[in-house]
Design brief:
With about 100 residues, the protein is an alpha/beta fold. The chain has one domain (about 10-15, about 20-95). The chain has 2 helices and 5 strands. The protein has helices at about 55-60, 95, and strands spanning about 10, 25-30, 40-50, 70-75, 80-90. It has a 5-stranded mixed sheet, covered by helices on one side. It starts with 8 loop residues before the first strand and ends with a helix.
């Protein structure tokens, strides 16, 4: 059985969205780190948002139990020793509407 190859860095923003969705909130995912595609390394999750949505997205990410230490980064986050997934927070995303984590 073949193992699916996961990208070490996945950014869900469209080409050119890095300028608009330029604030990243996130950190080490305590649930996904160390198993599955991230065996032997950390899994990092970040949510990219507009500057004007930063406070509400920060609060939404802080409410998550899977990321105990939250950090802010500008524009991008790359790490060669971890799986990194950057989610795009666009209109309709639960972080903007007060939806469930």
């Amino acid at each position: 059985m073949e193992t699916e190859e996961y990208p070490k860095h996945q950014d869900d923003r469209e080409l050119g969205e890095e300028r608009e969705l330029c604030v990243l909130w996130g950190g080490r995912d305590s649930i996904l780190s160390g198993w599955g595609p991230s065996t032997g390394r950390a899994a990092m999750a970040f949510w990219a948002c507009r500057e004007e949505d930063s406070d509400i997205v920060e609060a939404w990410v802080r409410s998550r139990s899977d990321i105990p230490t939250i950090r802010r980064h500008e524009s991008t986050f790359k790490c060669t020793e971890a799986l990194v997934h950057i989610y795009a927070v666009r209109f309709g995303h639960p972080a903007l509407s007060g939806g469930a984590v």
